[in-house]
Amino acid sequence: MKSTSLQNAMDRHGLTDKDLLDEVLSAAPKACAVIVTGSLAAGFGNEHSDIDLVCIVPDGQYSRLPIMVYRDGAKIDCEYWLLPDLIAAMDRISAADLQQDVGHFQEWKKLTRALQLLIKLSVAYSLQVTDSVKPLWDYVHSADFKHRIRTWWSLEALRLMAAARHALPSQPRFANNLYSEAVLAALSSQATEQSLLFGKKWLGEKLRQSCDETGLALYHLALELPCGDEAQVRERCLELDRMLSHSSVLEPWLYRADGLCWWLTPAARLNKFADCVLLWQGKVGYEFPRKHAAESWSCDRPLQMGAADGLDDNATTLLFKDGLVWPGLAFSSATAGVAR
Protein backbone atom coordinates (compact mmCIF):
# COMPACT_ATOMS: atom_id res chain seq x y z
CA MET A 1 0.00 0.00 0.00
CA LYS A 2 1.34 3.42 -0.94
CA SER A 3 1.88 5.79 1.98
CA THR A 4 0.36 9.26 2.01
CA SER A 5 3.79 10.92 2.14
CA LEU A 6 4.98 9.00 -0.94
CA GLN A 7 1.79 9.80 -2.85
CA ASN A 8 2.12 13.48 -1.93
CA ALA A 9 5.74 13.54 -3.12
CA MET A 10 4.82 11.94 -6.43
CA ASP A 11 1.86 14.29 -6.93
CA ARG A 12 4.05 17.28 -6.12
CA HIS A 13 6.40 16.37 -8.97
CA GLY A 14 3.82 14.96 -11.35
CA LEU A 15 5.19 11.41 -11.18
CA THR A 16 3.25 8.18 -11.62
CA ASP A 17 4.06 4.58 -10.76
CA LYS A 18 4.72 3.96 -14.46
CA ASP A 19 7.24 6.83 -14.60
CA LEU A 20 9.29 5.30 -11.78
CA LEU A 21 8.97 1.77 -13.13
CA ASP A 22 10.03 2.80 -16.64
CA GLU A 23 13.02 4.63 -15.18
CA VAL A 24 14.37 1.30 -13.95
CA LEU A 25 13.16 -1.10 -16.62
CA SER A 26 14.64 0.99 -19.40
CA ALA A 27 18.07 0.29 -17.91
CA ALA A 28 17.40 -3.07 -16.21
CA PRO A 29 14.70 -4.93 -18.16
CA LYS A 30 15.42 -8.21 -16.32
CA ALA A 31 14.85 -6.79 -12.84
CA CYS A 32 13.31 -9.22 -10.36
CA ALA A 33 11.51 -6.40 -8.61
CA VAL A 34 11.27 -2.62 -8.53
CA ILE A 35 10.31 -0.96 -5.25
CA VAL A 36 10.25 2.41 -3.52
CA THR A 37 11.60 2.29 0.03
CA GLY A 38 12.94 4.74 2.59
CA SER A 39 11.19 7.32 4.73
CA LEU A 40 8.59 8.29 2.11
CA ALA A 41 7.47 4.70 1.59
CA ALA A 42 7.34 4.21 5.36
CA GLY A 43 5.06 7.22 5.77
CA PHE A 44 7.70 9.27 7.55
CA GLY A 45 8.94 11.58 4.78
CA ASN A 46 8.36 15.24 4.02
CA GLU A 47 8.83 17.65 1.12
CA HIS A 48 12.61 17.45 1.50
CA SER A 49 12.81 13.64 1.34
CA ASP A 50 14.29 11.90 -1.67
CA ILE A 51 12.47 9.12 -3.50
CA ASP A 52 14.45 5.92 -2.87
CA LEU A 53 14.03 3.69 -5.91
CA VAL A 54 15.44 0.15 -5.67
CA CYS A 55 16.02 -2.37 -8.43
CA ILE A 56 16.39 -5.99 -7.25
CA VAL A 57 18.51 -7.97 -9.68
CA PRO A 58 19.31 -11.70 -9.82
CA ASP A 59 23.10 -11.35 -10.03
CA GLY A 60 25.96 -8.88 -9.98
CA GLN A 61 25.69 -7.88 -13.62
CA TYR A 62 24.63 -4.31 -12.98
CA SER A 63 23.05 -2.36 -15.80
CA ARG A 64 23.36 1.31 -16.65
CA LEU A 65 20.85 2.58 -14.10
CA PRO A 66 22.33 5.82 -12.65
CA ILE A 67 22.68 6.26 -8.92
CA MET A 68 20.67 9.48 -9.00
CA VAL A 69 17.98 10.87 -11.30
CA TYR A 70 16.28 14.27 -11.36
CA ARG A 71 12.75 14.42 -12.78
CA ASP A 72 10.69 17.64 -12.65
CA GLY A 73 12.41 18.78 -9.48
CA ALA A 74 12.25 15.38 -7.80
CA LYS A 75 15.47 13.79 -6.63
CA ILE A 76 15.34 10.03 -7.14
CA ASP A 77 18.07 7.92 -5.54
CA CYS A 78 18.55 4.64 -7.41
CA GLU A 79 20.08 1.55 -5.86
CA TYR A 80 20.69 -2.09 -6.74
CA TRP A 81 20.01 -4.96 -4.38
CA LEU A 82 21.10 -8.49 -5.17
CA LEU A 83 18.39 -11.11 -4.76
CA PRO A 84 20.87 -13.71 -3.37
CA ASP A 85 21.85 -11.23 -0.62
CA LEU A 86 18.22 -10.72 0.35
CA ILE A 87 17.54 -14.46 0.43
CA ALA A 88 20.66 -15.00 2.55
CA ALA A 89 19.43 -12.34 4.98
CA MET A 90 16.04 -14.05 5.19
CA ASP A 91 17.67 -17.43 5.84
CA ARG A 92 19.90 -15.95 8.56
CA ILE A 93 16.98 -14.31 10.35
CA SER A 94 14.58 -17.24 10.12
CA ALA A 95 17.23 -19.68 11.40
CA ALA A 96 18.72 -17.39 14.07
CA ASP A 97 18.68 -18.21 17.77
CA LEU A 98 18.48 -14.63 18.99
CA GLN A 99 18.92 -15.58 22.64
CA GLN A 100 22.32 -17.08 21.80
CA ASP A 101 23.36 -14.56 19.14
CA VAL A 102 22.97 -11.53 21.41
CA GLY A 103 26.10 -12.62 23.30
CA HIS A 104 28.26 -13.04 20.22
CA PHE A 105 29.60 -9.86 18.70
CA GLN A 106 30.01 -11.10 15.15
CA GLU A 107 26.69 -12.95 14.95
CA TRP A 108 24.73 -10.05 16.42
CA LYS A 109 26.37 -7.68 13.94
CA LYS A 110 25.42 -9.89 10.99
CA LEU A 111 21.90 -10.39 12.30
CA THR A 112 21.43 -6.65 12.80
CA ARG A 113 22.51 -5.94 9.24
CA ALA A 114 20.18 -8.62 7.89
CA LEU A 115 17.24 -7.20 9.84
CA GLN A 116 17.92 -3.67 8.64
CA LEU A 117 18.10 -4.81 5.03
CA LEU A 118 14.83 -6.71 5.17
CA ILE A 119 13.07 -3.93 7.08
CA LYS A 120 13.87 -1.68 4.12
CA LEU A 121 12.04 -4.23 2.00
CA SER A 122 9.14 -4.60 4.44
CA VAL A 123 8.34 -0.85 4.40
CA ALA A 124 8.65 -0.64 0.61
CA TYR A 125 5.94 0.12 -1.91
CA SER A 126 6.15 -2.34 -4.78
CA LEU A 127 6.05 -1.19 -8.39
CA GLN A 128 6.77 -4.67 -9.71
CA VAL A 129 7.45 -7.97 -7.93
CA THR A 130 8.12 -11.16 -9.88
CA ASP A 131 7.59 -14.73 -8.71
CA SER A 132 11.28 -15.06 -7.78
CA VAL A 133 10.86 -12.38 -5.12
CA LYS A 134 7.39 -13.43 -3.92
CA PRO A 135 8.57 -15.78 -1.08
CA LEU A 136 10.85 -13.02 0.22
CA TRP A 137 8.07 -10.44 -0.03
CA ASP A 138 5.69 -12.72 1.87
CA TYR A 139 8.27 -13.34 4.61
CA VAL A 140 8.98 -9.67 5.38
CA HIS A 141 5.24 -9.15 5.87
CA SER A 142 4.80 -12.25 8.02
CA ALA A 143 4.07 -12.45 11.74
CA ASP A 144 7.32 -14.38 12.28
CA PHE A 145 9.43 -11.54 10.89
CA LYS A 146 7.70 -8.96 13.07
CA HIS A 147 8.09 -11.22 16.10
CA ARG A 148 11.82 -11.55 15.49
CA ILE A 149 12.23 -7.78 15.24
CA ARG A 150 10.38 -7.33 18.53
CA THR A 151 12.57 -10.00 20.11
CA TRP A 152 15.68 -8.25 18.77
CA TRP A 153 14.58 -5.03 20.46
CA SER A 154 13.74 -6.84 23.71
CA LEU A 155 17.20 -8.40 23.84
CA GLU A 156 18.79 -5.05 22.98
CA ALA A 157 16.93 -3.48 25.89
CA LEU A 158 17.96 -6.33 28.19
CA ARG A 159 21.60 -6.15 27.08
CA LEU A 160 21.75 -2.40 27.62
CA MET A 161 20.01 -2.60 30.99
CA ALA A 162 22.39 -5.31 32.20
CA ALA A 163 25.34 -3.19 31.11
CA ALA A 164 23.87 -0.10 32.79
CA ARG A 165 23.46 -1.94 36.09
CA HIS A 166 27.05 -3.12 35.85
CA ALA A 167 28.43 0.36 35.06
CA LEU A 168 26.34 2.29 37.60
CA PRO A 169 28.60 1.81 40.68
CA SER A 170 31.65 3.41 39.06
CA GLN A 171 30.31 5.35 36.06
CA PRO A 172 26.83 6.73 36.74
CA ARG A 173 26.80 9.13 33.79
CA PHE A 174 27.74 6.41 31.34
CA ALA A 175 25.16 4.15 33.00
CA ASN A 176 22.57 6.87 32.43
CA ASN A 177 23.29 6.76 28.69
CA LEU A 178 22.88 2.99 28.67
CA TYR A 179 19.62 3.19 30.63
CA SER A 180 18.29 5.78 28.17
CA GLU A 181 19.10 3.54 25.21
CA ALA A 182 17.52 0.58 27.02
CA VAL A 183 14.31 2.58 27.44
CA LEU A 184 14.24 3.52 23.76
CA ALA A 185 14.84 -0.11 22.79
CA ALA A 186 12.01 -1.31 25.04
CA LEU A 187 9.65 1.30 23.59
CA SER A 188 10.68 0.33 20.06
CA SER A 189 9.78 -3.27 20.77
CA GLN A 190 6.26 -2.16 21.68
CA ALA A 191 5.66 0.64 19.19
CA THR A 192 7.24 -0.10 15.83
CA GLU A 193 9.55 -2.45 14.00
CA GLN A 194 10.80 0.31 11.71
CA SER A 195 12.61 2.26 14.43
CA LEU A 196 15.50 -0.16 13.88
CA LEU A 197 15.83 1.59 10.53
CA PHE A 198 14.76 5.16 11.20
CA GLY A 199 15.82 5.75 14.79
CA LYS A 200 14.51 7.79 17.70
CA LYS A 201 12.59 10.44 15.76
CA TRP A 202 10.49 7.79 14.06
CA LEU A 203 9.80 6.16 17.42
CA GLY A 204 8.58 9.43 18.92
CA GLU A 205 6.23 10.00 16.00
CA LYS A 206 4.78 6.50 16.33
CA LEU A 207 4.20 6.97 20.05
CA ARG A 208 2.38 10.23 19.34
CA GLN A 209 0.25 8.62 16.63
CA SER A 210 -0.76 5.81 18.98
CA CYS A 211 -1.59 8.32 21.77
CA ASP A 212 0.65 6.35 24.14
CA GLU A 213 0.98 8.98 26.87
CA THR A 214 2.91 6.67 29.22
CA GLY A 215 5.31 5.69 26.47
CA LEU A 216 5.78 9.32 25.42
CA ALA A 217 6.57 10.38 28.98
CA LEU A 218 9.18 7.63 29.25
CA TYR A 219 10.49 8.53 25.78
CA HIS A 220 11.03 12.18 26.76
CA LEU A 221 12.60 11.16 30.06
CA ALA A 222 15.08 8.94 28.23
CA LEU A 223 16.04 11.79 25.87
CA GLU A 224 16.74 14.25 28.70
CA LEU A 225 20.39 14.99 29.36
CA PRO A 226 21.44 14.17 32.94
CA CYS A 227 22.10 17.22 35.06
CA GLY A 228 23.07 17.86 38.64
CA ASP A 229 25.62 16.14 40.80
CA GLU A 230 26.53 12.46 40.78
CA ALA A 231 23.92 11.59 43.39
CA GLN A 232 21.16 13.08 41.25
CA VAL A 233 22.37 11.18 38.20
CA ARG A 234 22.34 7.94 40.20
CA GLU A 235 18.78 8.65 41.34
CA ARG A 236 17.72 9.21 37.74
CA CYS A 237 19.33 5.91 36.77
CA LEU A 238 17.44 4.12 39.52
CA GLU A 239 14.18 5.70 38.34
CA LEU A 240 14.79 4.46 34.79
CA ASP A 241 15.70 1.03 36.18
CA ARG A 242 12.41 0.82 38.09
CA MET A 243 10.43 1.76 35.00
CA LEU A 244 12.26 -0.76 32.84
CA SER A 245 11.87 -3.52 35.42
CA HIS A 246 8.10 -3.18 35.24
CA SER A 247 7.82 -2.77 31.47
CA SER A 248 5.91 -5.44 29.59
CA VAL A 249 8.96 -5.93 27.37
CA LEU A 250 11.56 -6.72 30.04
CA GLU A 251 9.56 -8.07 32.96
CA PRO A 252 9.19 -11.56 31.42
CA TRP A 253 12.97 -11.74 30.95
CA LEU A 254 13.97 -10.30 34.31
CA TYR A 255 11.78 -12.62 36.37
CA ARG A 256 11.95 -15.89 34.50
CA ALA A 257 11.19 -18.93 36.63
CA ASP A 258 13.93 -21.09 35.12
CA GLY A 259 16.71 -19.11 36.78
CA LEU A 260 18.23 -17.76 33.59
CA CYS A 261 21.48 -15.84 34.08
CA TRP A 262 22.86 -12.99 32.01
CA TRP A 263 26.57 -12.65 31.51
CA LEU A 264 28.30 -9.46 30.44
CA THR A 265 30.81 -9.92 27.62
CA PRO A 266 33.66 -7.57 26.61
CA ALA A 267 32.59 -4.22 25.23
CA ALA A 268 33.48 -3.06 21.73
CA ARG A 269 34.13 0.57 20.87
CA LEU A 270 32.20 1.74 17.83
CA ASN A 271 33.77 3.81 15.07
CA LYS A 272 32.14 6.88 13.59
CA PHE A 273 31.53 7.01 9.85
CA ALA A 274 29.81 9.46 7.53
CA ASP A 275 27.53 6.78 6.12
CA CYS A 276 27.15 3.31 7.51
CA VAL A 277 24.97 0.50 8.77
CA LEU A 278 23.52 1.73 12.03
CA LEU A 279 22.81 0.15 15.38
CA TRP A 280 20.65 1.04 18.35
CA GLN A 281 21.89 4.65 18.15
CA GLY A 282 19.49 5.32 15.29
CA LYS A 283 20.82 7.67 12.61
CA VAL A 284 23.83 8.93 14.53
CA GLY A 285 26.37 7.35 12.21
CA TYR A 286 28.23 4.70 14.18
CA GLU A 287 29.35 1.28 13.02
CA PHE A 288 31.09 -1.77 14.42
CA PRO A 289 34.86 -1.77 13.87
CA ARG A 290 36.08 -4.31 11.34
CA LYS A 291 38.21 -6.12 13.92
CA HIS A 292 37.82 -6.18 17.66
CA ALA A 293 38.78 -8.46 20.52
CA ALA A 294 35.10 -9.06 21.27
CA GLU A 295 34.80 -10.99 18.02
CA SER A 296 36.99 -13.76 19.40
CA TRP A 297 35.53 -13.70 22.91
CA SER A 298 34.69 -17.10 24.37
CA CYS A 299 31.94 -17.92 26.87
CA ASP A 300 34.35 -19.89 29.07
CA ARG A 301 35.33 -16.79 31.06
CA PRO A 302 32.26 -14.54 31.32
CA LEU A 303 31.77 -11.67 33.71
CA GLN A 304 28.81 -12.80 35.77
CA MET A 305 26.36 -10.04 36.56
CA GLY A 306 25.78 -11.44 40.02
CA ALA A 307 29.51 -11.24 40.74
CA ALA A 308 29.92 -7.60 39.72
CA ASP A 309 30.83 -6.63 43.28
CA GLY A 310 34.01 -8.67 42.95
CA LEU A 311 35.40 -6.35 40.26
CA ASP A 312 37.45 -3.36 41.30
CA ASP A 313 36.88 0.09 39.82
CA ASN A 314 39.82 -0.24 37.44
CA ALA A 315 38.44 -3.42 35.88
CA THR A 316 35.03 -1.84 35.44
CA THR A 317 36.52 1.33 33.98
CA LEU A 318 38.56 -0.68 31.50
CA LEU A 319 35.46 -2.58 30.44
CA PHE A 320 33.35 0.54 29.99
CA LYS A 321 35.54 3.33 28.71
CA ASP A 322 33.99 6.73 28.16
CA GLY A 323 32.50 6.95 24.70
CA LEU A 324 30.21 4.86 22.59
CA VAL A 325 30.71 1.17 23.26
CA TRP A 326 28.81 -2.01 22.51
CA PRO A 327 28.29 -3.88 25.80
CA GLY A 328 27.72 -7.53 25.09
CA LEU A 329 25.34 -9.95 26.77
CA ALA A 330 25.34 -13.73 26.85
CA PHE A 331 22.91 -16.20 28.37
CA SER A 332 23.59 -19.12 30.67
CA SER A 333 21.30 -21.82 32.05
CA ALA A 334 23.06 -21.74 35.42
CA THR A 335 20.86 -20.95 38.39
CA ALA A 336 23.39 -19.08 40.52
CA GLY A 337 23.89 -15.35 40.39
CA VAL A 338 20.75 -14.39 38.53
CA ALA A 339 20.89 -10.75 37.43
CA ARG A 340 18.16 -8.75 39.09
From TrEMBL:
Domain Polymerase nucleotidyl transferase: 23-62
Domain of life: Bacteria
Single Gene Ontology MF annotation: nucleotidyltransferase activity
Entries under InterPro entries matching the protein: NT_sf (IPR043519), Polymerase_NTP_transf_dom (IPR002934)
Record protein name field: Nucleotidyltransferase domain-containing protein
Organism from which the protein derives: Ralstonia solanacearum (Pseudomonas solanacearum)
